[in-house]
Amino acid sequence: MERDQRVKNDNSWCFACGEENPIGLKLKMSIQGECCTAYFTPQKEHQSYDGNMHGGLISTLLDEVMGNYVYQVEHRKAYTAKIEIRFRQPVLIGETIKAEGKAVSQHGRLRTMEGKIWKKDGTIAAEATASMMLET
Ligand SMILES: CCCCCCCCCCCCCCCC(=O)SCCNC(=O)CCNC(=O)[C@H](O)C(C)(C)COP(=O)(O)OP(=O)(O)OC[C@H]1O[C@@H](n2cnc3c(N)ncnc32)[C@H](O)[C@@H]1OP(=O)(O)O
């Protein structure tokens, strides 16, 4: 399906930030300093094994704060073209984490982004780099 044919008005159902999505993460994002920031406390339904948060959902958090940075700062929608995640430490169910995303460089419509997930003790649980393409 061409992008223009897709439903354009259902952004409130975004899995990561949509307010109306009943199974979404309902992230609230804000620009703090040079980053887009969101806090999240994983619940039991967000786990993988042994009380650890699912890595796919950690990736979702990183993707969202990087994409949302572009939207909030440039007022343009961007599509994730490539993303790479390094999972450094488990995130535990019930543990509040901070996700941060920022831009590091740009070339034409392509933005190179960085994201980090911080634990309360100031250590990094996961980090990402991504290429995001501005919508034409
Ligand atoms: C009105 C209210 C709105 C509210 C709104 C709220 C929004 C609030 C923010 C939400 C934040 C969401 C954050 C999650 C965002 C997703 O999750 S998006 C979903 C997952 N991603 C996708 O579905 C993307 C699927 N891929 C595509 O659609 C297309 O491949 C892309 C990425 C748009 C690129 O397609 P394209 O624009 O046609 O560009 P293309 O011709 O392929 O490439 C152009 C140039 O860039 C280069 N390039 C392409 N990809 C790459 C790459 N990965 N690395 C390096 N170079 C690349 C090409 O080589 C090419 O260069 P040249 O050929 O000119 O030398």
From TrEMBL:
Give the record's membrane topology: Peripheral membrane protein
Q: Where would I find the Thioesterase domain in this sequence?
A: 51-124
Q: Which domain of life is it from?
A: Bacteria
- Primary residence: membrane
- What is the enzyme's class at the highest EC level? hydrolase
Key words of the record: Apoptosis, Cell membrane, Cell projection, Cytoplasm, Fatty acid metabolism, Hydrolase, Lipid metabolism, Membrane, Transit peptide
Return one GO MF term. Answer: acyl-CoA hydrolase activity
Q: What is its EC number?
A: 3.1.2.2
Alphabetical list of SUPFAM superfamilies matching this protein: Thioesterase/thiol ester dehydrase-isomerase
Look up the record and give one Gene Ontology term from the biological process aspect.
Answer: fatty acid metabolic process
Q: Where in the cell is it found?
A: Cell projection, Ruffle membrane; Cytoplasm; Membrane
Quote the Pfam families the UniProt record gives: 4HBT
User: What family is reported?
Assistant: Belongs to the THEM4/THEM5 thioesterase family.
Q: Can you name this protein?
A: Acyl-coenzyme A thioesterase THEM4
Annotated source species: Megasphaera paucivorans
